[in-house]
Design goal:
The chain is α/β, with parallel strands linked by helices. 66% of the residues lie in helices and 11% in strands. The strands form three sheets. Strands 6-9-10-3-11-12 form a six-stranded mixed β-sheet, sandwiched between helices. Strands 2-1-4-5 form a four-stranded antiparallel β-sheet, covered by helices on one side. A two-stranded antiparallel sheet has the order 7-8. Helix 2 packs parallel to helix 5. The protein binds adenosine-5'-triphosphate. This is ABC transporter related protein.
C-alpha cells in the first residue's frame, strides 16, 4: 500500500484555499508592488517626454522639472520596493510555517496501520525532501512571481496606452521564447530528477563506505567501493551534463529574445516616427520599457520551472491529507474497565485472516499471559486489544464501547501497548517522560522512574531529569530506553496494559527484576503479557495459548499443566531446556 498522491484538481483546490485564506495579505503585496512598478515606469516616461521636449524645443525649467520628477520617482520606487519585498518575504515565511504545521499535525494523526502498511520511507521523504522543495517555492517563488506578473502587466499596459503601434514590436521575441521555454520545461523535470537521484546515490555510496570503513578494510573491499564511487560519479557527471546542455540552449535563446525585442522596437518605432505615426519620445520610452521588462520575464521563467517541481511535491504533501481515518470517535463513555473481544478477526492483507474469531473476556485486574508458537498471531491479538488497528471483523470493547470509537487520548487512558519499539526523543529526559502526562511534576516523574527501577541511573546522570537525551545527547542503553518507555506508561496510568516483548531486551535477570518492580506498579491493573519466556506465564492468573490465530486453550497455569494439552507440552519442554 502506498500513501496517496493528490491529483491536480485537489492541488488546485488546496492552493485556491491557501490564496483565499491570505486574500488580504496578497492584496497588500500586490498593491505595494503595483505602486513600486508604477514608480518604475515613471523613469522611462520622463525620458520620453524629455526627448520630445528637446526635439520640439523647450525651456531649461521644464527640463529641470522633469529631471526632479524622475529622481523622485526612482527614490519612491526604492522605498516602495523595500516595503513590498519585506511584506512579500514575511508572507512567504508565514504561509510556509502554516503549511509545515498543518502537515505535521496531519502526519502525527495518521492512522498507525496506514503508516505501517505504507512503510515509513515514503512518509519520511515527504516530510523532508518534499517539504524542502516546497519551502523554496513558497518562501521565495510566490512573492517573486507576484512581483514579476504585476511588473510585466503594468509595463505592457503602459506601452500599449502610450503607442499601441510601437508596442506591437515588443512581442517580437515572444513566440521564439515560448517555444524554447516549452522545449526546456518538457526536458527539465526528468533531467533534474535524474541529477538529484545521482547525487543521492553518490551520497549513499560514500556514506556507506565511510560508515562501514572497518568492514571495507577487513574484507579488502576498497577497490570495489572505489569502483562504485567512480560509477556514481560518472552518472552524476552525465546527469549534470544533460541539465547543462539544456541550459546552454535556454539561456542564449532567451537572451536572444531579449536583445531582439528592443532592437525591433527601435527599428519599427524609428520607422513609425519617421512617418509621423509616433513621437521619438514614445519610442524611447517603449524601448526602455522593453529592456526593463526582461528582468521580470526571466524571473517568471525561472519560477515557472521551480514551481512545476514544487507542485509535484505539493501533490505528495496534500496526498497525506487524503488518507482516510481508520476510526471515528463517538461520545459514549465506557461504563467500566472490562475489556472484551467478540468474534475478533484481523487480516493484514484482504482475504488472509491472521485472527479467526477470538472471544476473550479480561477480568478487571487480572493478569493474562498469551503464549504460542511464532507467527501464531500473539502480537496481532495484543495490538487489537490495545486498539492499534480496527478489527476487520468482530469487536474489542472496553466498558461496552468499541476501542475504535474512543478518542485516541481517552483510549490510551484505558489501554496501552508496550512493545520493544520505543523512541527516545531529542530533548530533556523529563520532557521525554512528560509526553505521557504533560502536567507531571518532577516528583511524579521520580515516582514513575522509581517504579520501573530506573531512578538510580537517572539520579546519576550529569543533570538528572534535565539531562539531554536522544540523538546527540547522553546515550541511553536499550534497557534504559525501555525503562523510560515503561515509566511513561506509569504516568499515562492506563487501566489495562498490553505488554508485547516489553522486557525482552533486558537480560533474563534484569527482566525478572523489572517485571517484579513492574508488578508492584501494575497492582490493580489488567495486564495482557505476550509471553516469550514461560516464567511470565507461570506468574499469570490465566494463560491463553494462541495457535493459528485461535485461542486453543485458556485457564490458570496449574489447570493447563494438569490438563496435559499444548501448554503442558510447552511448559515441560521449557523446563527441560
Ligand atoms: N505488518 C504485517 N503485515 C502482514 N502480515 C503480518 C504483519 N505482521 C504480522 N503478520 C503476519 O501475521 C501472522 C501473525 O503474526 P504475529 O506477529 O501476530 O505472530 P506472533 O505470534 O506474535 O509471532 P512472534 O512470536 O514470532 O512475534 C504471521 O503470519 C505474520 O507473518
Amino acid at each position: 500500500m502506498k500513501l496517496p498522491i493528490a491529483d491536480s484538481a485537489a492541488v488546485r483546490a488546496y492552493t485556491a484555499r491557501l490564496f483565499r485564506t491570505h486574500r488580504s495579505d496578497l492584496g497588500r503585496i500586490a498593491t505595494l508592488h503595483t505602486l513600486a512598478a508604477v514608480a518604475g515606469l515613471t523613469g522611462p516616461l520622463v525620458l520620453g517626454r524629455l526627448v520630445d521636449a528637446v526635439t520640439g524645443g523647450t525651456t531649461a525649467t521644464y527640463v529641470d522639472t522633469l529631471v526632479v520628477v524622475g529622481v523622485v520617482a526612482v527614490l519612491t520606487q526604492t522605498v516602495l520596493i523595500r516595503f513590498a519585498q519585506r511584506t512579500s518575504m514575511v508572507f512567504g515565511e508565514k504561509v510556509f510555517a502554516e503549511l509545515r504545521e498543518e502537515f505535521i499535525s496531519t502526519v502525527t494523526s495518521l492512522p498507525l496501520s496506514t503508516v505501517e502498511r505504507a512503510g515509513t520511507g515514503d512518509l519520511v521523504a515527504r516530510t523532508t525532501n518534499d517539504v524542502n522543495r516546497l519551502q523554496h517555492a513558497v518562501r521565495f517563488g510566490v512573492p517573486r512571481v507576484i512581483v514579476a506578473v504585476v511588473t510585466i502587466t503594468l509595463t505592457v499596459v503602459a506601452s500599449v496606452l502610450l503607442s499601441p503601434l510601437v508596442a506591437v514590436a515588443m512581442f517580437v521575441g515572444v513566440p521564439g521564447m515560448l517555444a524554447i521555454v516549452r522545449w526546456y520545461l518538457k526536458r527539465a523535470t526528468p533531467a533534474y530528477q535524474r541529477e538529484s537521484a545521482s547525487y543521492a546515490a553518490l551520497n549513499g555510496t560514500i556514506t556507506e563506505s565511510v560508515e562501514g570503513a572497518r568492514t571495507v578494510d577487513a574484507l579488502r573491499l576498497g577497490p570495489r567501493r572505489q569502483a562504485r564511487v567512480d560509477a556514481d560519479l560518472r552518472e552524476a557527471f552525465a546527469a549534470e551534463k544533460v541539465t547543462l546542455d539544456l541550459r546552454t540552449v535556454l539561456f542564449p535563446g532567451i537572451d536572444l529574445a531579449f536583445v531582439l525585442a528592443p532592437a525591433a522596437v527601435l527599428l519599427w518605432g524609428g520607422y513609425l516616427a519617421s512617418q509621423g505615426y509616433a513621437t521619438l519620445g514614445a519610442v524611447t520610452t517603449i524601448v526602455m520599457f522593453t529592456y526593463q521588462v526582461s528582468g521580470p520575464v526571466w524571473e517568471l521563467i525561472f519560477w515557472v520551472d521551480e514551481i512545476q517541481v514544487a507542485a509535484t511535491s505539493l501533490a505528495r504533501i496534500v496526498g497525506v491529507q487524503l488518507v482516510e481515518t481508520d476510526r471515528t470517535a463517538g461520545d459514549v463513555e465506557p461504563v467500566d474497565e472490562d475489556l472484551s473481544a467478540r468474534g475478533l478477526r484481523y487480516a493484514y492483507r484482504e482475504g488472509h485472516d491472521v485472527l479467526h474469531g477470538i472471544d476473550l473476556d479480561l477480568r478487571s485486574g487480572e493478569r493474562l499471559a498469551v503464549v504460542g508458537p511464532s507467527g501464531a498471531g500473539k502480537s496481532t491479538l495484543g495490538r487489537m486489544l490495545a486498539g492499534i488497528h480496527p478489527p476487520t471483523g468482530g469487536s474489542v470493547t472496553v466498558g461496552g464501547v468499541p476501542l475504535v470509537e474512543l478518542p485516541l487520548e481517552d483510549l490510551r487512558g484505558h489501554v496501552a501497548l508496550v512493545t520493544q519499539e520505543h523512541h527516545v526523543f531529542v530533548g530533556e529526559l523529563a520532557d521525554n517522560l512528560r509526553l505521557a502526562q504533560e502536567d507531571a511534576t518532577d516528583a511524579d516523574l521520580e515516582r514513575a522512574l522509581r517504579a520501573v527501577d530506573a531512578w538510580e541511573w537517572v539520579a546519576a546522570l550529569p543533570d538528572g531529569l534535565r539531562t539531554e537525551v536522544g540523538s546527540g545527547g547522553t546515550p541511553l542503553t536499550p534497557a534504559q530506553a525501555q525503562q523510560v518507555a515503561l515509566a511513561r506508561l506509569v504516568l499515562l496510568d492506563p487501566h489495562t496494559l498490553v505488554l508485547d516483548e516489553a522486557t525482552s531486551l533486558l537480560d533474563p535477570r534484569a527482566a525478572r527484576h523489572l517485571e517484579r518492580s513492574l508488578s508492584a506498579v501494575l497492582e490493580g491493573r489488567t495486564v495482557v503479557a505476550i509471553a516469550h519466556r514461560l516464567h511470565t506465564a507461570h506468574d499469570a492468573d490465566r494463560v491463553a495459548v494462541v495457535d493459528g490465530g485461535r485461542i486453543t486453550e485458556i485457564g490458570p497455569h496449574d489447570e493447563l499443566v494438569a490438563a496435559g494439552g499444548d501448554y503442558a507440552a510447552l511448559w515441560h519442554s521449557w523446563q527441560h531446556e
